Amino acid sequence: MKVSICATGDSIMMNPPPREYNGGEELKKIIDKADIRINNLEMVLSNYDCFASTFCGGTWLTSPPETLEELLAFGFNYFSIANNHTMDYSYNGLESTLATLEKHGIAFSGAGKDLAEASRPAFLEAGKSKVGLISICATNDDAARAGYARPPIPGRPGLNPLRHSEVYNINSSHMNALKEIAKNTCINGRIDNSKKGGYTIQKPGLFSLGAIDFKESDVEGKTSSCNKNDMARTKNVIENALKEASYLVVLVHSHEIKGLTDDEPDYFLEEFARSCIDWGASAVIGSGTHQLKAIEIYKGKPIFYSIANFIFQSDASHYMPQDYYEKYDIPTEYTAEQAIAIRSANGTRGLNCDFMNFRAIMPFMEFEDGKLCRLVLYPLEMGFAAGPGLRGYPNLADEKTAKEIADRLVELSTPYGTKLSTRKNRIVVTI
């Protein structure tokens, strides 16, 4: 029996769609054809009655609980909630988000009252099959991650984390220069004392300059790797979920990159995604940097390193906490709109200025007898050139824009051996 899955990227909706917006019905017709209909909820659901965390995912994002009803109108039956904005409004904001989702009876995963709950998959029926969905986040402040209970101490609310480490390989000349800098500035004074006291673990073979780790090597560059505990936990969750589900989908949110651009997945993300397939996952769906990344068909299963956005209104918050004003040295009498305009230099810099952040794909996958048998991508465009009221809402891309998106995906995915072809305003992935 076939199981169909339709996935969409990040939803940051600060305002309900205006009456003039007419792209939703067309998208809903496609989404409704799938058994599993996925969206990434990248905002807190609250009435601005929750205190803000000292950190945020870039900008503090919260929207009224009624916003969920606007998203449900697209036909979604599952939300991934592990992302860098999950804890923007601390524990009360998380509690409000969870309560809103539970009130509507919608499936979700990725955050909870402790790590056991945050790691737990959601399950959905698809005909005679059951599909499990796991949500995990690699980009977050350490205080955002959930924690296990250890009696008598209760667990910590938060998101399901994918921690990782980075090491920068440098040659002997550069290493000597770093050690000279450390000696002359005393930058490592406090941490070295902490290591002597056993409070900070020594890392064999590495030299740390502050919080950054370096290793001497003839070949310079960066490496990154997943946290072994988070990998072991995820492997266990996947294997246990597959005892009752025929298919398992992993949603992963990551802003990390290999080099200087937002369209390359970091090394640890490749390691994580391929490991999930090795452990039995049917698909890995990434989001995070708001831009498209490569598609890889690994052992016959799809890995989307980032499918980008679905609704993008990251600069449309109605209120901002005091921390935002202090961070950017903005007069406190300014409205949120005025404060955001200062940071963005009146809309001339930041995420909302790059048209690539307003392009995405909506994958539609079909599986049969455990195997991927069809994969079609619907290119989306979010009104980059539209007026203020319509900007950020998704539409099926026209043929010209769809071809530009397809050409970009071919460029990004060819190094992974992925083959794509265009059919009018659709993209077909060769299985």
TrEMBL record:
Q: From which lineage does this chain's organism come?
A: unclassified sequences, metagenomes, ecological metagenomes
The segment(s) forming the Capsule synthesis protein CapA domain are 4-314
Q: List the InterPro entries hit by this protein, alphabetically.
A: Capsule_synth_CapA (IPR019079), CW_Biosynth-Accessory (IPR052169), Metallo-depent_PP-like (IPR029052)
Q: Which family does it belong to?
A: Belongs to the CapA family.
Name the record gives this protein: Capsule synthesis protein CapA domain-containing protein
Species name: bioreactor metagenome
